[in-house]
């Protein structure tokens, strides 16, 4: 029987409280290679992009995020795919699909977190769910969101790739407390051996990849937050990998384990968004 692959378009923006992620996800769904063999389902997301998100139980937009998390979970349970591609959206898009996949593969799923940041903050450290999503999956993070995780991911089954370790903040210290394995960009630019060793040591057969595009260098890829035109100070760690590096890493991984999940997050196509905003001011588009 052929594996069933499901594509989820999840333009969730509330986890990072940044409405630009909505358009970024929409455009991403047209950029990725198309397939007649994969069903695409759009997860309902609140599209009132001008609203001010309230802080509810310590989380910005908690009610909307919970509703969207439940909707994603329901779709996955009804469709019962073998593989999932998630097109987002802020980083919190990975919670429901990775939880589902870990259950499907009996708690043995490997998770590769391709990101400049670890997303393991606790609710005491942040009000934004996208900074806590991996913490949630590890049974930590924000209690109301980690309580939704049915299949907690084992810490040894997580590996950070491209992490800017020397710029970890106080909110990122679960990386050290839990002794989560990682490889910094300079290491990965040479080869993928550290990831391959992790796969082999933990006997990982299936793997889900969280690909936050900001793991990339803004000199190499321009559709990410740090590449915003005229931005003088990003205020957080900036990725250093190239698309060529990531392509090689994912190709190497696919030879060691079956890729069953891929989420792509934080696509911010500045030129397209700025052009759209400019054209919206011209009368002929509003007649």
Element string (H = helix, E = strand): EHEEEHEHEHHEHEHHEHEH
Helix coverage percent of residues? 25-40%
Strand content: 15-25%
Total DSSP helices: 10
Strand order of the largest sheet: 2-1-5-10-9-6-7-8
Structural class: alpha/beta
Tally the beta strands. Answer: 10
- In whole angstroms, how far apart are the ends? 53 Å
Nearest-integer average pLDDT: 97
The geometry reads as globular
Alpha-carbon Rg, integer: 18 Å
User: Which consecutive residue ranges, at least 5 long each, have pLDDT under 50?
Assistant: none
Profile the largest sheet.
8 strands, parallel
Describe the structure.
The structure is a single chain. The protein has 287 residues and is an alpha/beta fold. The chain is globular, with a radius of gyration of 18 Å. The strands form 2 sheets. An 8-stranded parallel sheet has the order 2-1-5-10-9-6-7-8, with helices on both faces. It is 31% helix and 16% strand. The longest helix is centred in the N-terminal third of the chain and has 18 residues. The mean pLDDT is 97.
């Amino acid at each position: 029987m052929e594996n069933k692959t499901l594509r989820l378009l999840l333009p969730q923006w509330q986890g990072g409280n940044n409405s630009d992620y909505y358009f970024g996800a929409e455009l991403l769904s047209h950029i990725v290679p198309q397939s007649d063999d994969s069903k695409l389902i759009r997860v309902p997301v609140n599209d009132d992009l001008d609203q001010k998100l309230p802080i509810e139980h310590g989380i910005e937009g908690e009610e909307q995020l919970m509703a969207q998390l439940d909707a994603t979970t329901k779709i996955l349970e009804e469709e019962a795919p073998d593989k999932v591609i998630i097109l987002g959206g802020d980083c919190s898009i990975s919670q429901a699909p990775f939880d589902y996949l870990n259950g499907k593969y009996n708690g043995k799923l490997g998770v590769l977190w391709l990101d400049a940041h670890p997303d393991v903050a606790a609710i005491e450290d942040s009000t934004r769910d996208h900074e806590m999503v991996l913490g949630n999956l590890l049974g930590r993070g924000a209690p109301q969101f980690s309580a939704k995780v049915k299949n907690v991911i084992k810490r040894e089954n997580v590996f950070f790739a491209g992490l800017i370790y020397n710029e970890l903040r106080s909110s990122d210290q679960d990386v050290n407390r839990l002794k989560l394995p990682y490889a910094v960009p300079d290491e990965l630019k040479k080869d993928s051996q550290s990831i391959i060793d992790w796969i082999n040591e933990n006997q990982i057969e299936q793997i889900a990849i969280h690909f936050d595009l900001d793991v990339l260098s803004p000199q190499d890829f321009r559709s990410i937050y740090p590449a915003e035109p005229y931005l003088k100070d990003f205020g957080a760690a900036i990725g250093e990998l190239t698309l060529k590096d990531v392509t090689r890493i994912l190709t190497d991984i696919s030879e060691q384990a079956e890729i069953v999940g891929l989420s792509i997050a934080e696509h911010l196509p500045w030129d397209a968004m700025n052009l759209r905003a400019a054209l919206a001011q011209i009368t002929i588009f509003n007649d």
